[in-house]
Structures are given as C-alpha cells and as structure tokens.
C-alpha cells in the first residue's frame, strides 16, 4: 500500500486504504446515476457527534433506494470510528473532521441484464473548512432564494440523503452568480422556504422559533439538535409553512448543518434580517446552548480561524 | 499501460486508457452529487448514428449545468470516433456499440472553498445488450406506470441528460417489483405520460402518431428520427398531452431510444395495447422506414440474438 | 311477496322486501350518475358497531350532496336495526354482517325539467367475506400504489361517502393487474398516501403511529376507533403527511376499515414492510385493544375461516 | 310481457322489454359505484345523428374502464337502431329522441371475492326536452362558473363518459342555487374553462372560434361537428386555453351538446356576452351550417315548442 | 386651509389637512401600481381597538414591500390618535370610526431612472357603515364562493395588507352579480376556504371552532381576538384546512373583520348553514365574549341602525 | 388654470389640465385597491404607434374588471391624440413620448353601501427615458429570474393591464437587490418564463424564434409587432413553453415593450446568452425590420443619448 506520509485513509469495500486509492469504476451506478446515498457527521474537539443518529438516517436512505450495503449499522459505526481514529493524527488540535459513509448500488443494469455486483461502500473523513467559513460567523450568511424549486417528494424525497444533488447545485449556481459568497435557500413546490445545499433554515419571529416542516427537507440531525436546544432554553418552537413574508419580517434567521451547527443569516434577497445584529439575541442563546450541550465552542473555533 | 488483450479502451482526461483504468476519485462531484452530464449514441453495423446531434445535445446539457469540458464539440466528435475505432475489433460482426461521452464538474466545493480542478472527461463504448433485449422485439415490452412522478422542469430539467437518475431508478424499482422484465414509463406533474429511463414513448391513435411534448422529456435523437420517419411515410404526427385515457384506448404503442430504435409495447398496466399485435401495422411501417434510413435491420439484429 | 326461504330482506322506499325485489329504475340518478351516498357498518358477534356514528356521517354526506332522504337519523337507525334483526337468522354464529344505508337523489333532471320524484332509500345487509379475506390476516396485505391519484377535494370531497367510485376502481384495476390479491392505496394530489377503496392506512414509525390527514380521506369510523385505541395503550399518534419515504422506512403498516378493523400490511410496492413480521408488535397491540374494546376477537374470526 | 300501450321499450341484457322492466339490482356496480359508461346521440326528424361515432366513443369509454360489454360495436349499432325503430311511433312528428347505450360492470366485488356475473347492458331512448329548453334559444343561456373544479385527468379522465357525475352535479347545484335556469361551466385544474354537465363551450373572439383543448373535456361529437362547420364556412378555429379573461372579453359564446347542437350564451357570471345579441352573427352562421349539414332546423324545432 | 365646517381632516405627508386636500399625484406608485400598504382599526364607543397590533402589522406589510415610511411606529400611533381626536366631534354618540394608515412608495421608477421622492403617508378615518350593514346582524350574511382563487403566497403574500385588491374585487364582482348583498369568500390554491375582501371566516363543527390556516389569509386582528375569546369561553379551537365539505356540513359559520367584529353567516352557496339560526348558539357566545372584552355591544350598535 | 410654462397637460375627467392638477382623491379605488386599468403606447419621431390596438386592449382590460369608462374607444383615441398634440412642443426632436390612458373605478364601496360616483379617467404622456436606457442597447440587459412567481390567471389575469403591480414590483426588488440595473423576468406557475414588469421575452433557439404563450403574459402590442417582423423576414416562430433549460441554451434573447421595442439581453442569471454578441445576428435582423416598419431607428435614437 503506497501512501503519502500525510495522506488520509478511508474504508473502501472491505479495506482501509489511502484516499488516493478510493477510486470508483466509471460504470459504477453511483457515478453514472448518482444512485447512491451518504450521511455525514462531524467531530467536536475530535469527538464524533451523534454517530448513531446519522447511521440510522443512512439506513433509512438505503431503504428508500432499496440498496443493500451488506453491512449492519453496528459494523458501519465501528468502521466509522476506526476511520476517524486512523486519521486524527493528521489534523491540528483546533481542527475537526467531517466523517461520512457513502454507499452506491455498484455496477450493473437491470435494463441491459448485467448482474449487479453488489454495493460500493466508502467510509471517509475530511477536515472542516473552518478558515473558509470563519467570516460567516463574524458577518452572517447572505441568503439568496433562487428561482429553481426543490425537487418535490413525489419525484424524489428530499428526506433521503442521496448523491443526486443537481437540483441544489442549480440553486447554488443561481445564488453564486449574484454573490460568490451567498448561500441558496430554496422554495418548495408550495412556495415555502425549505432548505439549501446541506443546510436547514430557522427564523425567529416574535417569541417563537420556526423551521420548515420535515416533509420537504432533509430532517437534519443538527436541525433536531437545535430544536432540542430551544426546548432546553424554554423557547417556543414549531414546524411551520415559512414563506417570504415570514422571512422578510423575521427578527432573526440562521442556518444549521452538521458542520455549521448554527450560523447566523445577515440578509435574505438583499434585505437585512431584523435589525441586522449577527447573531441576534435568540440565535446567540441557541448557539450557547448548542455549544454547551456538545461541550465545544464551535463558533469560537470558527472565529479563531479568521485570518 | 497494462491492459487485458480483450479489454476495451476509453478516453479519460486526455489519454486513451484501458477501461479498468478509468477510475473516478470518490471526491469527484460526478460521484458525490451526480454533478455530471452525458450523451450516448450507438452504431449500426459498426457505423455511428447521428454523432453530431448527440454531441450538440451534450453541449446543451453542459450549458444547462454550466460545466466547461475544456474541449470543443469538434474535438469531442473526433475523440468519440477514435475510441470507437480502437474498440471495434473487440465485437463480432453482428454486434454493435453504445458510444458515449461523460463529463463531470470534477473535484471542488464552492461552499468549502476548495478549488475546482476542472472537469473529468470520459469517452467510452460498450456492447449493446442485444441478447438480453431480443425477446422484447418478439413479444413486446410490458409497460407499468409507477406512482413516482417525473422530476418537474422547475426543479431540474428532464431535457438535460445528467447523472441524476434516482427519480427514474425509483420508477424502475416500482415497475420491476411487479414484473422483473417490465419497463416504467412515468407521468409528469400534470398527469401526462412523459418518458422512461432512457426511453421515449409513442402511441398510434386512429390515423395519428402522438408523443409527449418535448418539455417534460429528454428530446431523444431517436424520438426525432422516428418523427422524421412518420413524415417520410406520410403519417400525421403531433406532440400532445397523452394521458392514461389515450394509452388505454391506443391502437399501438412503442418506445424509442438510441439503442432500442423502435420497440413495440405489448401492454400497459396489464392491459393489452390495441388488438395485441406486436408490432402493430403502423409500428411495423415505422420500423421499416427507420431501418431503411439507417441502412440497417436493427430489429433483425435483435431477433437474431434470441436463444 | 315472493321470497326464497333463505333470501335476505332489505328496506326499500318504505317497505321491507326480499333483496331480489330491490330493483332500481335505470333512470334513477343513483344509477345514471352515481348521484347517491351510502354508509356501512358491521356487526361483531351479531351486534352492530357504532351505528350512530355511521348514520351521522351518512347525513353529512347527504348534506354535502344536498339530498333529502325524507327520513330522520333516528328513523334510519331504527330501520337499520330492523333490517339486521330480520336477517340474522340467515347467517351462522361465526359469521357477521355488513349493514348499510344507500340513498340516491331519485329520478329527475333539472336540465331537462323533469320533476324529481324524491330520494330512493335502501337499508341492506350482506355477509362479511370472512373466508375470502382470512389469508390477509395470516400473510398480511400486499399494497401497490397506483399511478392514478385520489380525486382532489375541490372536485369532489373524499370525505363524502358517495356512489362515485371510479377513481378508486381505476386504482384497483392497476394494482390487481399486477397482483390479483393486492390492494391499492392511492396518493393524493400532493403526493402523500391517502386511502384505498374503503380502507385507511396507518404506519408505525419509531415509537409513533401515523395516518394521513383527514382532508384527503374518508374519516373512517374504524380509523377513529384505532386512534382511540392508540390513546388507550399510550401510543403517541399524529395525523401527518405520509409519503413513500415514510412508507418505505416504516416499521409496521396496516389498513383499517369497517370490515377489516385492523389488518396488517406485508409489503408496499414489493418492499417488505419493516422486518416482515405480520402483524408487527405494535399492530398486534392495537388489534388486541380493538378486539377488547368491541368485545370480539375479529382476527380470530377471520383466521377461523382459513380453509 | 305486460306493457302500457304508450310505454317505451328498451334493450336490457339480451331482450327488448318495456322500460318499466329495466330494473337494476341494487348490488350492480353501476348503482353502487357508478361503475358504468354510456353514450348518447339524438335524432333529427327521427333520423339518428352520427351513431357510429358515438358507439366508437362508447367503446373507448369501455376500454378505459376495462369493462367487457360482450357485444360488438356492430351489434350495439343494430340494437340501437332497433330500439329507436320500436319507439318512434310514440312521439310526434315535431319531436325527437335521445338514443343511448349504458353498460355497467355488473355485480361482483374483487375485494370480497364475489364473482363478476358480467356486464349489464341497456339501450334506451327518451324524448328531447324541447319545450323545457325552448326559451334558451330565444334568450340565450346564463352561464355561471362554479367554485368546484373539474375532476383532473390523473384522477379520472373527463374524456370517458361514465356514470360518475357528482363533480358535475356539485357544479350544477352551485349554479342553480343562484339562478334556477343557469348552466354551470367549470374550470379545470389550471383555471381554464372546460365543460359543463354534458355540454362543451365555445367562444368567438375577434375573427376566431375557440374551444377548450380536448384533454380536460369530453370530446363531444357535436363539438367536433361544430368545428367541422367552422371549417366549412371558413371560420378560423383553434383549441385553446380559455380563461375568464377570454370569456369576459369574448364577442360571442355558445354551448354545444348532442341535444342542444348549438345554443347561444347570453351571459357569464352576470356579465352580458359581447353586445348581447342572441345568437350573435357568427353563432348564427354556425347554427345555419349545422342545420344544413344535418338537414334539419333544430333551432326552429326548439323555438316551435315555446309556449 | 379651506375646510367645510363638517369636513373630516387627515394626516397627509406631514400635515393635518381637510380630507378634500388629500390628493394623490397620478404618478404616485400607490395609484399607478397599488404599490402601497395600509392598516385599519376601528373605535368602540369612540375608543380605539388594539392600535398597537394594527400598527405592528402595518410595519410588517411595509417590510414585505420594502417601503420606508420615514416615521416610527410610535409616531404612527400618535398621529393616528391625533387624527381620530380631531374628527370625533363629527360623528354621533352611537357611531364609530374606521381609523387607518396608508403608505405608498411615492413617485419614481427604477426602470426609467426617475428618483424616488419618498413615501406618501396618510392617516385617516371614516364612519363605519352601521346602517348599511345592520341587516346582516339580523339576517346573517349570504356567502358565495366565487370561481376566482385567492392569489397564492408565492406571487404575493395575502398576509401583507396592500393596495392590490383586484383579486378580491373580482371575487366580489362574481358574488354580487348573483346577489347584490352577498359576500364572497374565496378558495385558496389548494381548494380550501381562505378569506373574503377584508374578512376572515370561521366555522363551528361539532364542538370545535375552526378557521383557515394563517398562511393564505390576512392574519386579522379581529380573527385573533375571536380566537382569544374561544379560549376564554373554553371552546376548542384549531386552524385547519376547511373545504366545501366542512362548510356544507358546518353547524355555524361567521365572518370576522375589524368593522364586523363577528357577524353570522346565514347561507353558503345557497345552502342554509346548520339549522339556520342567526346567530347560532356558539356564535352568540363568542359575540357576547367579544363585546364584553371590548366593553361595547357592537351587535346592538349595528342593530340599532336598522331602519 | 395655473400652469408652468413648460408643464405638460393631461386629460382628467372631462378637461385638459396641467399635470400638477391631476390629483386623485385618496378614497378613489384606483388608489386604495389599484382598482384601475391602463394602456400605453409611444411615439416614433412624434408619431403615435398603433393607437387603435392599444385602445382595443384597454377596453378589454375594462371589460375584464367591469369598469365603465363612459367614453367610447373613438373618443379615447381622439383624446389621446389631443393630449399628445398639446404636449409635443415640450420635447426635443430627438425625444419621444409614452402616451397612455388610465381609468379607475372611482370612489365608492359596495360593501359599505357608498355609491360609486363613476370612473376616473386620465390621458397623459411622459418623455421616454432614452438617456437612462441607452446603455442597455450598447451592453444588453442583464436578466435575473426572481423566486417570486407571476400571479396565476385564475387569481387575476396577467392579460389585463391593471394597476395591481405588486407581484411585478416584488420581482423587481429581488432582481435589483442583486444588481441595480438588472431586469426581472418571472416564471409562471408551471415554471416557464413569462414576462417582466412591462416587458415580454423572446429567445432565438437554433433557427427559431420563441416567446411564451399568451396565456400567462400581457399580449404586448410590441410583442405582436415583433412576431409580425419575424414573419416578414421569414424567421420561423412559435409560442412555446420556455423554461430555464431553453434560456440557458438559447442562442439569443431579447425583451420587447412599447418603449423598448426590441432590446437585447446580455445575460440571464449571470450566464452569458449565446456567444455574448449584443445584439445577436437574428435580433439585429428583427430590430432592423422593426425600425423599417415604423420608419424610425429607435435603437439609433436610444444610442444617441449615451453620455
């Protein structure tokens, strides 16, 4: 096994190998069709966040696509822990990892009668883009709502975390054509805000925390963790239909994701959110509760990477 | 370059290599997001069918996704011809190839600030599944309309030929769970028939040939060729909204695709199409005109592979 | 009154007559237009289940269609009891009846100026198909989701129980073309599961019981009774948007109806539900609670008719 | 066979019988579910209008519902002619008949395992309501657009002529609650005018005749005949999306149906159509061409019944 | 300042002037585009009802349209109080005022490069139409559901109170063409009842009070006050999807608005609501609680103006 | 009549007055509800363009809203000509006017029983923003597709030219927040491009000119004139569903409006249209034909105002 001294390793179809050897045959359905699922958690101070929940969601995605990973959830958890363990020495103390699993259906076409050779399984990690994103925690995210709408559930459920991301990529292309640092948050088929590429959205309206209903969004683990934090600090919360009227009249807004945890939004469609405080007071409370619950000051970590 | 004596070669990022060396890094966006496009034509008696049109459509798909292949259409055509040339000796006289191009956006994430290293380009061919599909030309295809609806154009255009096929895979899983040899043809968001995984649908109703409007379907080259044949034999033709009433009362039905050319449908949702003739008289006329125009008896070729 | 010795009787426009004499003039709007409503309960050990609720719902259906039955709910109840009474001697101890009321608008066309002669009223019963359905309780129901969508409420409310069933018949034709014993459960206009021909659907997901919102489904009395049972056994319950992602990742699934009470589902679209146990543990608890509440082992009754 | 001297006869499951003996068992699916289809033509001066086309459409409706009438179209035509023949002596010279066929799926339930005993077939005629409708030809029809929308094709095709009319009955109830003589014309799911209970709608806008696309409406034979007449008199015609803007700015409007042929509309939603002429000049031309083509002054016949 | 002795005054861009001097330049965007927002409360016995809430809502409407009034909410409240104060002497003791604020974006076009000169601000009052509406409290309102649908939130949010009312005017034109005293209540894009021109709708169904979800309706202050009253009298309440099935089977129905407070509905689409009592017993309870909470018998006031 | 020496005059309710005296009472429904319609043409070298067609369309808008202007189309034309005549001396030789009519329903509320005092009628002109827009003809327009969707026809027809523009203003606010010079072109409810604030959109795709179907857009007179020019120069043309796939793969794109005539589009959503030529060759041909047909070099006029 040839490996650069500082190269990360990954699990790939039964073996731990250097990442440069995790190479997908181009006839793999994961490449040709995006016919694959994944999930992704992160570490906080090198400790894994809610791995069990992420793996549970991974197996729901697999069930939705009827892909058999030929590994049990327990094995998947063990492999994830092992992959992390073997890569931790490669990052600094003030850095952390994304840690994820990717399973494609493998090679083989029912319509041409070629046998399916079984799933392709990868477990891998990569450093969080702390430096790149640090300004977002200082300034807030600028959100643009693109014209492209989120894929409706009767075509493909947004709740399965698959390798079919073009809908979200198109949204990002729209937003970034206007502002290279903007993030897209899409509308669903009913015209309500739903989610962005890998992120959930929340607003604070009066004394209530609101987030889009789970049906049109990936039910993020960090989204759920944020909801739990709201309960912990006694903040009324509801899933709701949230449209642009709500967004334009919100007091505060923020995005959540595995890697972001909670990151404040500064503007939406060029309109300052609330009075422009980043983060707003309620968002600040939630960030604090979140940090306390994971025993890690994620916002401080991001800000420490500001150049 | 190690290559098995009978291994096909493919173009891969600047070089012609054995197919087993066309390996995609797992962080390529083509794998992680299906963020890639492709096109595919076939040979008739080892001669390429309408390569220019397929490459034109490929560049429209690239434009839609804003992917820069760093190759001109002319170069793409030349490479395609070269790849075919170097693989022809590997198939028999009575066999033919699919010939296709695949371009992914490559590695790199705007949201994490990693540079995009440029597109991944593959030109490849593979033998048509003549033997596997031969029975379809004898018996007709059994079509099942699944409950999953085709992705609507405001989420992702069905007219771009991308690597995001889960919507169509879900449709196929539904159909094949009922009948392992059935083909799915989906409804669009308005409840009209649109297309299947890689195939277009036509019906003959009275004295007219009808096919779904182009908006909700990949505007197949073979679809267009079939329309041209209808004109050649003086058959009235129209793009139309075609729903299940039309399908259940049609006189004939068939699918088209690059590889199928024209293949008769025997039944839809368990109902025999028309009087059950496979192919029906009009379909037979179109098959004959098609074969004549490409100077190749594709149906005869398929049937000759019946075991 | 000529009547076969073992012929059931029914109430028909003012009289109790043998069923063979309940004959509808072909110009009755109930025949020509399905311009009629009905409701249907069952007996448990020859005792009527929630007749008051069924008659209340019948009068809501009448109000929706603005049909005047010229009988009060009380009279309808009394007639129902009488019809049952006069037919009980015709079934065995281990058998039970459906007991229903049907009211059409009668003869007469506003658009041609013919007088409406008043409603046609029938009260009738028929033996439950215990033997035919017994295997469902042993093996579970195989559900297929058809491509046809449930009629939307702004065209005709699914909550009124009318004689217009073609939408549901079309769904059944689709399902049974694939599998003669399968049951159809349709999607509503938003792509959520709603109901089948005369049945409601429930899933168990994690520790929660879920069923589609009442808006798109007939608010079944047995559906409500099942919800009551969930409360009784302390099972968290919610009305929810339930799509195929939920269905494919559910732990358990079952159908309810007047006659089925609760019947487990084995598969949906060819995918085994949960781990394939029939019934699953939560379904079993609900069946037990249901049986206890009606003081009748309906599942045992069904299974006793297995040949 | 007991028959009143002046009673009409009808064909019923193999025999010609007095109408009073055409009685449907209440368990017939045609009654319980409206699970039946029909078609209807009329006579002009006692001669049948386009019977072949109506029977062809009938068999398409049968195919859509997968009902087997166990009679060939030829036999159906012959029976229709015979039924008419045997009833002609019952009406006056200045009167005419509707002549129709009705086929239900018969008795039997797949879900309870009762055998289907075969289709119920009726061929029948009834006098046109000439006197009742005569004022419409003098004054024009008042159209009201109800809030209820036409059943969408993915739930049940409006192009099949079935016994499921509640959607249209609800529309009529809305219109007639406001004005007992008004006719309802519904909007389809896209908000375009489609059809009323048994009638098609046309507008004259500038120098063009327009009618809703066939997808959302029963493709009326009289609708087609009117289109043919437009061609005959050189009037430009198109199928089009027609919404309330078109209706409110139309120069003329009329309804067509088998019995109406062409009948002018005076107002829509309380707004006078065009300048209020009944019929307008173009409608008049079409009425004349229609009358000439069927060699019968249908409008004169109606008006002659004015009391 | 020339003013008739009994002329009302209003605030207009910085000054209190006679109403006849509140004149809008025809190039003001409030006139050309309806590009303006407003809000409106009323007095009870000359005391203002919930002015703070109305002004809060006004500023949400301003935020939605990104109009800067160049006045703080506090100033707006003070001006409103002043305008009322200066007009109170013009009405009788048994009369009351509407009191409202209107802010347009002013003159100026981005697309032609003309500067925006700043918002136009009006604060004004006008006497409630007590006499005109008095019969509604005696007889109940007749509601007609028009065919025109409420503007969907992704085109323009119904929750912002703007000067774009044509959608509601079209609805009113439909209803009043049928019955000059009828009120329109529209359906939203999903076919649920939402609101009328300035009014919210409630139904009483069984023991529950229901009103449409806030997303498709202006969240009326009086709507909220009614909900508060329901809580006060212990009446179970829910926001719900309310369609025509609910409306036709409701026990009671009423409208709320700033000026109406609560006014009973007698019929909907020509069908008597419940048993026809005006008001029904639950509506009566709510009216009493409402009157008590504002310390004013609004219904008595209306009825006292019956001629 | 006090008038500044260089002040324009306008027709206002029966008189020609200085523009500063065209003042709308704030209770006029045109202000309160945008309950008004308008139309607008322009001059070419001080000669009016297609006034008859614009006035015809104005009267269709009036009919749609049921507003009676109490003036005949002929009078409206005459007044328009007079207003222009009396203002021509105020502009230079190289300048031109917009010339328009605006009619509101006037004062009065059906719901409060105040009499309607009759329509408010204005005929007015204003100089074209030649200097402001000149750069667009040199550089091309940058189009942004906003997330807000065009109001659907069943809520309010986009084909009537009314004073309700908030939907389009919201779209503009989105676009201009990203780029102060960008123009918004909206999607309709089906996700197709429709129109912008006062402009129609065309694309050139291959050898065909395409523009959105008339149903979702104001059927612009300049749009029609452009279509006429296409016919004149032998360019194949069709109304079509045009979505973002079409837009992103178009060879050329341009906007039309009364004032713009034809103005090239440089980019859409940040993507260069075609090869970036402004105008493209086909657009250039159409501009030339347009200029020739109106005998006026409108593009030259715009460009001559470049500073």
From TrEMBL, chains A, B, C, D, E, F:
Top EC group: transferase
Gene Ontology BP term (one): amino acid biosynthetic process
Matches recorded under InterPro entries: Aminotrans_IV (IPR001544), Aminotransferase-like (IPR036038), BCAT-like_C (IPR043132), BCAT-like_N (IPR043131), Class-IV_PLP-Dep_Aminotrnsfr (IPR050571)
EC number: 2.6.1.42
Pathway linked to the protein: Amino-acid biosynthesis; L-leucine biosynthesis; L-leucine from 3-methyl-2-oxobutanoate: step 4/4; Amino-acid biosynthesis; L-valine biosynthesis; L-valine from pyruvate: step 4/4; Amino-acid biosynthesis; L-isoleucine biosynthesis; L-isoleucine from 2-oxobutanoate: step 4/4
An example molecular function term from Gene Ontology annotations: branched-chain-amino-acid transaminase activity
Purpose of the protein: Acts on leucine, isoleucine and valine.
Official protein name in the record: Probable branched-chain-amino-acid aminotransferase
Organism listed in the record: Oceanibaculum pacificum
Biological classification of the source: Bacteria, Pseudomonadati, Pseudomonadota, Alphaproteobacteria, Rhodospirillales
